[in-house]
Structure formats: C-alpha cells, structure tokens
C-alpha cells in the first residue's frame, strides 16, 4: 500500500514537472496559441503568431507613446517628452556622433533611436504576465540585425561609393599573398558582426525568461516548501527590467560602432 501511494505521488510529481516544462517551452517559443491564463488560451489566425503580435503591439504602443510625447512640442519639455528627449540626446551624443562623426551621427540618430526604443518596448512588454518576449525569438533579433547589416553595406556604398566600399576590406600595406586570406576573413567578419547582434539579444532575453519560469515552476512542483524560490524569481525578474534597458543599449551601441566602421574604414 505504501509503495502504491509512493508510486502515485511520483507519477503526479512527474506529471506536474512535465506540465511545467511544457508551459515554459510554450512561453519562450513561438506558436499560434496565446495562453491568457493557466487554464485558458486563444487560438490565433493562421497568419499570426504570438511573437508576431508582440512585435505589432510593441510598434503600436511605441508610436502612441511618441505621438503623446510630441503633442507637448512648443512648450517647455516635461513628463514623457522630457524622458524621450533624454534618451534621444544620449543616443545622439554618446553613440551616434562619437562613432559616426558629427554629420553622419546626426543623420543616423533617427535610425539608432528607432532600434533602441523598439527593442526596449519589446523587452518590457515581454515582462508583462501572459505576454511574450518577441526578442527571445532569433527570427526577430535576426531581422533587427539585418537592418543594421543593410545600413552597414548599403549606406557605406551610397556614402563612399562601391570602389571605396570594396577597398575597405583590403588593409593598407598588406602583401597581396596575405590578402588571399585576409580579405575573405574581413568579409566573413562583416556577417559575423550582424550574427553577433542577433544572437546576443536573443540569448540574453531567452535565458532570463527561462530562469524566471524555472524558479516559479519549482514553486508549483514543491509548494510552500519552495517559497524562498519565489523571492529569487522576483529578484531575477527585477534584474530582467534592467537587462531590458541594457540589451537595447548594447544593440544600439554596437550598431553605431559597426556602421561607423563601414562608413569610415580609414579610421
């Protein structure tokens, strides 16, 4: 009888563990089923996924917030407009101008601001319960990195010309036999930089959410005995708020650095 009860308890624990694992994988993965509550879900149309909705929702919220901030133009900046101006000025003076120069930096500030605010919005929305983190999807971060790569290539060709762009892969003073090795490495390095942008943002956002939900899953599996784990999860959740800003900052900063390297290869 004792063995029978122990087997039943073990089976129940295994079932709970499997359910927790399935919930975690669903939350960090992309699907067409939006779990509003633990006991309910919403099936999405065939052309939509939860991460796609998060991208669209982030864009709508961001546009709305910027529109509300811009309504204050013409008066002394305050509230939301003051906060937006702080970030814009920081991105322009600390990222764009130092790595792209005065003229190109001011020209590229709108793009860098768009990347920063869009990534930040997706990161923060992913921290809302029952919502999903689009930046935990490598397809989303890959598309963002693709924008940076397109500006690195297309912008450099438009600014410097195709001949100067190609010469940017040829280090000055290197003997031609060595160039057979160096030039392909330089070209591959251009693609690796974009891949690094995508993987860094994706991995950090994915890992943080897996840790938080794994800790909360322990609370579901072991009950009150695992209550201290809740405070650990809360601490990591608050850390994820900081990470949301940090990863948006790093992506934008590295984009400015990489674009500047292509725009000014001589430096």
Word description of this protein:
With 267 residues, this protein is mainly alpha-helical. The protein has one domain (13-263). A hairpin with a 2-residue loop joins strand 1 and strand 2 (40-43). 78% of the residues lie in helices and 3% in strands. The protein has a two-stranded antiparallel ribbon with strand order 1-2.
Tag the structure with descriptive keywords:
single chain; two-stranded antiparallel ribbon
Low-confidence spans: pLDDT under 50, at least 5 residues?
none
How far apart, in Å, are the first and last alpha carbons? 78 Å
Using only C-alpha atoms, the radius of gyration works out to 24 Å
| SS-based class | mainly alpha
> Strand order, biggest sheet?
1-2
Q: Helix count, per DSSP?
A: 8
Number of domains: 1
Largest sheet: 2 strands, antiparallel
Q: Roughly what percent helix?
A: over 70%
What is the H/E order?
Answer: HEEHHHHHHH
